[in-house]
Amino acid sequence: MANPYLKDDAPGGGVDPATAAEAVCARHGNDPAALLEILHELQHDIGCTPQAALPAIANALNISRAEVHGVVSFYHDFHETPGGRITVKICRAEACQSMGALKLIEAICRRNGIALGETSADKRITIEPVYCLGNCALSPAAMVNGRLHGRLDETRLQAAIDGAAT
Amino acid sequence: MSIKVYVPRDSAALSVGADEVATRIAREAETRGLDIRVVRNGSRGMLWLEPLVEVEHDGKRLAYGPVATGDVASLFEAGFLEGGDHALAHGVTEEIPYFANQERLTFARVGVIDPLDLADYEAHGGLKGLRKALAMKPGEVVEEVVESGLRGRGGAGFPTGIKWRTVAGLPEDQKYICCNADEGDSGTFADRMIMEGDPSCLIEGMVIAGIAAGATEGYIYIRSEYPDAIATMKAAIRGWEEAGLLGDSVDGSGHAFRLFVRTGAGAYICGEESSMLESIEGKRGTVRTKPPIPAIAGLFGKPTVVNNVLSLASVPVILSEGAAFYKDYGMGRSRGTQPFQIAGNVKNGGLVEKAFGISLRELIEGFGGGTASGRPFRTAQLGGPLGAYVSEDMLDLPADYEALAEGGAMLGHGGIVVFDDTVDMAEMARFAFEFCQIESCGKCTPCRVGAVRGKETVEKILAGIDVAANIALVEDLCDTMTDGSLCAMGGLTPMPVRSAIRLFPEDFDRAPSAVAAE
Ligand SMILES: Cc1cc2nc3c(=O)[nH]c(=O)nc-3n(C[C@H](O)[C@H](O)[C@H](O)COP(=O)(O)O)c2cc1C
Ligand code: SF4
Ligand code: FES
Question: What CATH architecture is A86-165?
Fold first, then answer.
């Protein structure tokens, strides 16, 4: 899956965030109601929804910059800076807690040398909390680069992480 | 003729390796020169058996599970394609007690059909409800749903037909049907299973709602945590469009109906209906002040039906079999069936659709088989993070909106999260406040500030500081949040907190020394 915008070295692979944002907005007919879809796509394309892209979005959708910023900052999904190459979203909601999710989180964070919610300095991995992935009968659950995993323990989750790295 | 082998594509099944199993089965059959067809169905809902592989043999489907890739060769050796016996064999799927003892109306096709095969859908009773609705007057469709007694499955339990009647009665040209597929409650996955396992059923329910209420556009708001459901819904909508079942003239009827998918962005509060509408409009998910209710001024200010996935997906069977048929299930004012979701520390977790009135004990012990850990049961949280915890001696309560409310609990979206005796209820109370703090939309003070103060105060209790005074303070805070919050996020966070304090006071009785010694 070659993504023209995504390169390993620089966030956005050197593509100007404003240019990328304009392209995404145009794909959605510059419809302000599509703002969430636009932000999702932008994040998919350049790895994040950076400040530098917001004026271009505001302009294209004919809404204020404050409104765009308000939306970006409201939703947990949108990030101003790109995360690691591997993103682990690990569930810490009640059903997963009942099956030891908090211990799993602690163990997996320690093993990968970062705290929950952080990205490693080498940009290899981000581990963030989520609240339910809809896999509550097969807890604990986590999502690794968009792929859902269930019945996890430390070994299985680390295997999924290592598998995503290759 | 090739032998049909079913391997689910439901994301719970995928999360434990269903894709790899499907690939391995196909490859194994090829090397052995066997003619099979692998169908990717939804899940039967017996999630502890996933990946659950089924083989069609003598007109019946035989179940094998949980199948790991390493089991595939031995399944072939055992002749599973001809129903051969194996350590993972469970016999005829529909005769497995967990499945056989259910009453599947809304979930009738989930796990049975290929979710994206419209012919399969129709062969299993799909489109019958829509065709009946098209032959009726819109007002009659509304009354059929009113008559069925269907109440909203998203949590509040408001009668669905009454909501439709309000929207139908307004003169505006533009009206909307919005499906709430934000399913953020821990312990719930029924919406996801419908969207991944029988997406056409939801679409059919929405089209019927559109005809009934006079709406020509619908939106499905799906949380971003559900990428598979989003992809399946979009593919199913395309299938309906190509078949002429969505568009300018639904099935040649002259009724127009178009459907769009919108993706959430990781905000629990966007499951609250007005916050969801804001989000669909591309805005921050801040809760709107009511009135006006969405039925009067909803999406883009227009009359809007907002319904949960399960409410809408129950509509086709109500239309096809009639209100009386549906209403015949259930008890008291809770009519029909509820897809319960048994989750957490439970041996046989999964989806159990039963008529209202079944006891919590039957669900947790009968279907669920007790805890997964094998340790004693301590509590279950009903109805998601804003729902109450219940104790062992409450398990004989029937699952019914009113009976549970009387018992100080709520059914919510039908999720049941089981905990064994290792759970620390003071910790769960702390978490309830923390969750509210993380997910509050910030619009009103009791919720925004109360959550933070509540969390801090329970932390003091956990540390054994002024325990009695701090419990009193938590109770006070709970009063303020219950009375002063604009929506149920702040308004119901006291539910889990208070039930924990009331039912498990021993967990709050912290001695300072005990904590210091840890
Ligand atoms: C904080 C909060 C979260 C909610 N989350 C959901 C949800 O995820 N799905 C849902 O259908 N309803 C949810 N609701 C209830 C909705 O506001 C609304 O009552 C429901 O969508 C109406 O549909 P129904 O009548 O078919 O249940 C939530 C309510 C609150 C206060
Ligand atoms: S109770 Fe909480 S979530 Fe609801 S409107 Fe108030 S601040 Fe927002
Ligand atoms: S609570 Fe973790 S997946 Fe639902």
Answer: 3-Layer(aba) Sandwich (3.40)
